[in-house]
Amino acid sequence: MRLILFNKNLPWLTAAKAPVNSTYQQPTFAEPGSVIRNVGRWADPNGQTATTSSVTSRTETWTQRLCEFSRRRPRSPDYPEGRTSLGILARMDVFNLFDGATETPADPNDPPGYACSAVRVGPKIGASKLGMSIYELPAGQAICPYHFEWTDEEWLIVIAGRPTLRSPEGERGLEPGDMVCFALGPDGAHFVRNDGEELVRVAILSTKNDVGIAEYPDSDKVGVWANGAHYMLRRADHLDYWEGER
């Protein structure tokens, strides 16, 4: 089954000019750039189904015309990432996990032991549903305090070096190529640091939500992130639901 890209904004691709005769069952146009699995029947005027070779030749002819039209059409300023306004041919940006440069240096205001640099990969490749950050940890440094997430699943991918992972099960050493999933809730609590001498480079892949909630068991804190707002609260200061409302 061939996949054919249709775009209803193309002036020369209309039902009246489809590359088949009047007995062809026309597909329903979706949004521009959508992928349609064409399951209609090609038939000749006598009602006989066309051969596979004739269908293939028609498909290839129109696919070639679509590609040629897209190459000739200039890129639209509405798509700064390089995608054409047709939504057919899009440039896919690439970031290399092994040697892509980090951009955010260690924050001098962070306490000792958390001096690592990082880069957010998602914006660099046009991602919207998943997020990834890459961290480089010098000897003796960690990413962030021991914590777990209530809203997002995270995966740790070791790119280089041998970091130490602390989890509810204890501590263990990891090697390049190792992957670990940090599930939602207390079972996914984690802390990643570099106990060796060589530089550690890791990636953390995660789902994305408008609201993030994380707990820090060692310091009895809860962090809340929502649409740019950030709250860090003490778990022990739990209030009654009607506190201040009576």
Q: How would you describe this protein?
A:
The protein is mainly β and 246 residues long. Among the domains are: 70 residues, no CATH class; 91 residues, Jelly Rolls. It is built from 2 helices and 14 strands; from the N terminus they run ββαβαβββββββββββ. The strands form 4 sheets. The chain has a 5-stranded antiparallel β-sheet. Strand 7 and strand 8 form a beta hairpin. The radius of gyration is 27 Å and the shape is globular. The N and C termini lie far apart (66 Å).
| Alpha-beta classification | mainly beta
Strand order across the largest sheet: 3-4-11-6-9
Distance between the amino and carboxyl termini? 66 Å
Count of helical stretches: 2
Oligomer: single chain
Output the CATH topology of the domain at 117-207: Jelly Rolls
Helix-strand string: EEHEHEEEEEEEEEEE
Using only C-alpha atoms, the radius of gyration works out to 27 Å
Described by the principal axes of the CA atoms, the overall outline is: globular
CATH superfamily of the domain at 117-207: Jelly Rolls
Uncertain segments:
1-45, 47-56, 79-86
Profile the largest sheet.
5 strands, antiparallel
